[in-house]
Amino acid sequence: MKPRVAFICVHNSCRSQMAEALSKLFAGDTFEAYSAGTELRDTINQDAVRIIKNLYNVDMNETQKSKLLKDIPSIDIAVKMGCNVVCPFLPAKYTEDWGLDDPTGKSDEEFIKTAKIIEEKVKDLARRIKNKYPPI
User: Fold this and answer.
1) Those residues with Cβ within 8 angstroms of residue 29's Cβ, 6 or more apart along the chain or in another chain
2) Is the pTM of the predicted complex or chain greater than 0.90?
3) Cα atoms in the 13 Å half-sphere on the side-chain side of 107
4) What class of enzyme is it (predicted)?
5) DSSP assigned state of 36
């Protein structure tokens, strides 16, 4: 069984959604990806949706929605996206914090930069899982 990874932040509308989408694209063979937060949003950040569609041809509006922590299954790995406030807590065998700045309200360049960082971190996490680190 593939490990379950949850990308968490408060609003589950931008970074965590991007991480879920890119994980399904680049690491779907290695782990199951989820995203969630402590507050629901009516829609995913539409700048994030547009950038992910332009860069990766993935339409998050069709495949994803804002979810609460209680809406996802139990997980093995929790990845905090980088909260300036208190990050949500989710029980997991392993937790790490990617410390990413929220690009919401910033330029497309900031969204692209964030997407590329997330892509690299997702690929690195998949490599580490294949190499049994973190040990879950």
Assistant:
1) none
2) yes
3) 3
4) oxidoreductase
5) E
Alpha carbon 74 to chain centroid distance? 16
Q: What is the pLDDT along the chain (136 residues), one digit of tens a residue?
A: 899 999 998 889 999 999 999 999 999 999 999 999 988 889 999 999 999 999 999 999 999 999 999 999 999 999 999 876 666 778 899 999 999 999 999 999 999 999 999 999 999 999 999 998 877 7
The number of folded domains in the chain is 1
Structure token pair of residue 125: 């996490």
Report if residue 135 sits inside a domain.
Answer: no
Element spanning 6, H or E: strand 4-8
Q: What single-letter DSSP state applies at residue 40?
A: -
Residues spanned by the domain of 62: 4-130
- Any idea what the CATH number is for the domain that residue 17 is in? 3.40.50.2300
Contact between 126 and 132 (Cβ < 8 Å): no
Looking at the domain assignment, is residue 108 inside a domain? yes
54 in any annotated domain? yes
Nearby residues of 105 by Cβ (< 8 Å), 6 or more positions away: none
136 inside domain: no
